[in-house]
Each structure stands twice: as structure tokens, then as C-alpha cells.
């Protein structure tokens, strides 16, 4: 039955995350934006110790997957994805870059969950239960291909008891923390092809432990925003990994089912990225609301159209667009929690959130004039942080493309 | 706990209305727009669906179903998907029954509601909007003044659906404290057609909703019994205003979805440069955004409707949802015309009708029709 009220459990999660955002993240946000390549180790260590009993993230998901049927029945439908979206919104409201820098399974862990064998899930995800923070990352993008992920050139060649990886990956979020053993006993999930002639069917994911000879973290990017998050280039030169480090089956199927399987990870992660964008957008909206209140400028809901001031109209547009994005995101997450295919809805959520928070944060800077433009407050940073959400995890244009294919019933060959 | 699924009864209602809209309403949309007439047979069929009797309590002859703004939003969307004019005609009696069921006095309910529970369609209406650029629904220029046990109503209304047919009108007027210098409060009062001083104007001519017979309404010192005024105070007025916003919003979703579906289907058939135009990014991306916005509009509408059903004040959500729906339904309908190109401009296709209808939502107010 239609219901728009968050459960008590999720509300509690939101409160906890908000406390963390307000008291641990906001105070150091500016500092780690300015000191781009330094890491806030106190914050990272604290989030790690807090994450042990986390009710969100792949740790929580593995826990739910391991539940007995009786426990599952008692619990009712899962709210894991929805709860994660709510949590991520709060943390990103705190700081978009710091949120991304938090240790944990991340995208790499999500890939293991989506494509790994039960043994692999156990082995690799148990790394996140230790005393020291561990990161994992996903490396897909290469210098010459981003959106067109089927065209990746990194190779994996079987050699006895090993796979040998060669290639270059760029724009790997948390690649430094996951790939450099100085930072953690983490791992990188690397997309590489085992058979170029097979096209997407030949693309597989491989787990490379931090410190594996042949994998180098070559550099970290200087970015417009989310500077607290490291964005790394990884170079693979005859990097040898054990044979059982291929995620799932090494067979090259006749179809691209395997590729589709990993792409399905995105159905779970797109709503989460949308939620992160919404958090950043909300930070801006909350700030504008506070400033308007301070100046005694009312926002009159219900006022007759001819009396609406420009600033009221602009603020109301911001709020409404944000809520539209949020509801699309919650819907996509709710569908996944209820075992429904949500490929279309996940892309709608991501496409909407990306564009909306870009517009909201840019408008917000304009609305606050010189104060909005100044580095004395965080708003200009939120505008810089927001922009990436329209780009990574599937650009807006790619997400519109996915929506278009679904609603028109077209394959990627029919609509490109 | 968050839930995006309608309950079984709502799904059943939706399925019934979907079929009715597709099979009975839509085939008449173009002709109704050209002639300005909603076929009598269709009005009869709509009546038999029980859309009006549904939420009138059993003691007054109705079916006694609880009023749900969410269910109303589903009905509003699906009927409007068929055709907006016809939808508004079929639902028009609710403009008076819904507010009276919620806020009418016992005497008023006893005399008025049974008249809407007979075998045949009984027209009813609301007179809310005023023909002035500074119309303010929270402080109408139409005035309500106490006169002993009665009230005297004076003013000018426009956009009154079925004005020529309705026997009773729910008039939104403004009342002021004491000597007429205090704040104006909106108040609704039921005025019978035969009240001395009431004149029904000529049928209006609008860009859209052309099959919906709307008129102006003049009230010249109309004396009305005190128990015809709706109770509920400012909170009641706010609730009615929000019910209206949600209902209109849901109809905007219906019109927008109709435009999007039409454009999508056309684009898959129409060839240019060797392919269906749906296989061109410019068109495909427009359609993708249209689909996304239809869903976004609906979710915002349902959230506001749900809050109303919880008895919460939903002014912020309903106001914002309606603004969004009015803007987006126009944009979507406009894009639909664009997708059809030259053919979208011709009255052979319905998209130009959807565009003319969609523009209306920004101008409609105070119609608690669902």
C-alpha cells in the first residue's frame, strides 16, 4: 500500500549518519578540499570502527544474504538498498569527497557480491571485518574508453596457474587506498578482456591485491571537486594473479551474458550514486533556506501565482526538482529490495539526480552572490563536488540512452 | 514503511478506469473537441462506473467508500489519459460532493447528496476562479457577508464547469472579520441555481478543454441560508485547496503520459534517413526525458496525496507538485508535437490537443475534483 514514510529503522540510520556528517565531516570538509592529496586518517579510522555494526553497505548485505529463511520471513521485505540510499544521502550532505573516501567494500565489493562465487564472496569480503581499514575499488575506464566499456583494451592471458594482466586504467575511485599496500590490504577489481575477438563476451573481472608485483599506482588526479577522494591511474605490466582471482566463471560464453551480469551491478549502484548527488544538492538547498530565513525572506507555499517572487520561484523549483530526483531514487532502490528488475528505473534516478543537483548547486551559488562565490563557505565546493555526479557511474547521456532503449524496446545496435 | 505499490482494490479500480478510458473515452476525444460536446451515452456510461456515488456515504444513498486522495489521483490520471475534457465532465459533480461530504452540515448533506445518487448523471459544479489577473484563491474578491442567519454573496466567477446544467454550485468566496478591513478568509458556500441574483454566463471559449462546457457565474447580493456554508475554517479551506492541487496534478500526469505514449509510438513507425526516427538520439533522448518526467510527476503527486490521506497538512507538497505537473505536462506535450513534426501541428493527430489541454493546468485552481 502506498506509503511515503520511512520506517523507524531507516529513520534511525538517517539520524546516525547525519550526526556523523555534521560533526565529523563538515568540520574537515574545506581542509581536505584544499589539501587534495592528503588523507584524513583520524576520520577514516573512526568510520572504520563504526562500520563494524553497519546496517548498510555490502557487509550488511552479506549478513542479510546469510539469514535463515525464518529470520527473513520475520524481517519482511528487505530495505537494504533503500536504507543505503538514505545513509549515503546524509553522508554526502556532509561531504561528497569524504563520503567517497570512506573505507569499505565500495564498488569493488559490489562487483564481488554481484559476480563472485560463494567462496570468493566469503574470502574477499571477510577482509572488511579486520581491525584496520581496508578499501576496494573498481577499475574499468581506460585513457581511450569510458562510456564505451565494451571497447576496453586491458588484457588477461592465462599462463599456467596465473592470469597475466596488461593495460592501463584511469579514473579509479579509491585506487590509491585500495591498490597501494602502504594504505591498506585492499584489492582492485579490474575489467580486462580474455579474448578481444569475442567483444563484450570476452570481458571479465579480476581481483588484484594491493602490492601485487606488476600493478603500479602511477598517479592521482587533480580534480575540480570531490578532492578528498583519490582518483587513481593504475598501470598493469605483466601483473600475475592467481587463477582463482577471476570473478565468476572463466568460460567465454557465446553470448555476452557475463558482461551483462557485471553491468547489472550498476542497477544497484546507480541509485546509490543518485542518492549521493541528492545529498550534495540538499546541502545547497538547506543553506539557501537558512540564508533566506536569516534575511527574513519568506517562502510562501500556496501563494497566488502573480504574487510569487523570483526568489521564491527559484527556491521552490530547486526543492521540487530535488524531491523528484529523490523519489525516483527511492523507487529504484525499493524495487531492488523487492526483487524487481529496475534497470530502467535506476537509470531514470541517476539521469535525473545528476542533472538536477548540477543545476541546483550552480543556481545556489548565483543566488548567494559574492558569498556564494567565496571559498569562505562551502557552497562553491558543493557546486564543484556536484558536477561529477552527472558523469561517473554512467553519464547523463548514457543513462538517457539506457532509458530510451528500454522504453523503445531497442537493443544497443538499434539505438546508439 | 516506504511502499510504491497500490493496494489490490486500487489496482482493480485502475484497471477498470484504464479500460474505460482506452475503449470508451479516447475514441471520442477528437470529435468532442471539434463539436464541443461530450456524447450523452458516454456520460451515462461514466455515471454507471460510480465515480460520483463512490465516496458519498451510504446513509445519503452512495456507496460509502472512504475518500482517498491517492485513489482519486489514480482515477484522475487514467480518465485524463483518455481525454481531459471528458474526464472533467464525468467528474464535475465531485466538485461539489467531495467538499460537502467532508465539510457540509448535516442538513446540507441530507438535502444535497441524495440528488447525486440517482440513476442518471446529475451535474454539479464549483465556482472558484475569478476573471482577474490578481485572482487569489486564499482571498477571493467574491465576498461573503453575514446577514442574520443568512449570508449574502456578491462577485463574478469564471471557468465554472457545466455551469449551464448544474443545479447547485460550490462558490468560493472571501469573508472578512467585523467591519470589512481585516484579513480575508476563504470560505465555501453552496448556492442553488434558482437563487435570486445568480446569473449563469455564456459558454466560455477556451484554447483547450473545448468539450467541457464552462461558463461564467455572476452573484449579485445572493442570499443564502447559513447552513449552506462549509465548516472547517482555514484548515478546511487549505485541505480543499490541496485536494484540488493533487487532483489537477494527477490529471496533468494523465495528459502528459498520453502525449508521451503517442509520440513514442509514432517515432517507432515514422522513418527518416533510412530508419525509424526513434533510433535517432535527438528524438530518443527527448522521449527518455518525457518518460522520466511522467514518473517524477506522478511520484510527487502521490506523495502529496498520501499526506492528505494521512490527515497531514500537505500544502507545501501539493503546491509544489501542482506547479511541477503544470510545467512538465506542457513541456512533455510540446515535445510530443515536436516529435511528430509537421504532422504534430495538424488536427489529424491528438498531440496538438494534448498541448492545448496541458497549458490549461497552470491556469486551473480550486477544483477538488478527485
What do you see in this structure?
The complex is a heterodimer of chains A (416) and B (370). With 416 residues, chain A is an alpha+beta fold. Chain A folds into 3 domains: 8-104 and 117-125, Butyryl-Coa Dehydrogenase, subunit A, domain 1, CATH 1.10.540.10; 136-255, Butyryl-CoA Dehydrogenase, subunit A, domain 2; 262-408, Butyryl-CoA Dehydrogenase, subunit A, domain 3. Helices cover 52% and strands 13% of the residues of chain A. Chain A is built from 15 helices and 7 strands. Chain A has helices at residues 8-34, 41-51, 57-65, 69-75, 80-94, 96-101, 106-115, 118-125, 175-179, 257-263, 265-294, 310-337, 343-373, 379-386, 396-408; strands at 136-139, 155-159, 162-173, 187-193, 203-209, 215-220, 231-242. In chain A, the strands form 2 sheets. A 4-stranded antiparallel β-sheet of chain A has the order 2-3-7-6. The longest helix of chain A is centred in the last third of the chain and has 31 residues, at 343-373. The radius of gyration of chain A is 22 Å and the shape is globular. The model of chain B has no long low-confidence stretch (mean pLDDT 96). The two termini of chain B are 25 Å apart. Chain B has 11 helices and 9 strands. Helices cover 47% and strands 16% of the residues of chain B. Chain B has 370 residues and is α+β, with helices and mostly antiparallel strands. In chain B, the strands form 3 sheets. Chain B has a 4-stranded antiparallel β-sheet with strand order 2-3-7-6, with no helix packed on it. Chain B folds into 3 domains: 8-116, Butyryl-Coa Dehydrogenase, subunit A, domain 1, CATH 1.10.540; 125-232, Butyryl-CoA Dehydrogenase, subunit A, domain 2 (Beta Barrel); 234-360, Butyryl-CoA Dehydrogenase, subunit A, domain 3. The chains are: A alpha+beta (416), B alpha+beta (370). The A-B interface holds A 1-7, 10, 79, 82, 301-307, 316, 319-320, 323-325, 327-328, 330-331, 334-335, 345, 348, 351-352, 397, 400-401, 403-404, 407-408, 410, 414-415 and B 1-7, 10, 70, 133-138, 238, 241, 264, 267-268, 278-279, 281, 284-285, 287-289, 291-292, 295-297, 299-300, 302-303, 306-307, 315-316, 319-321, 323-324, 362.
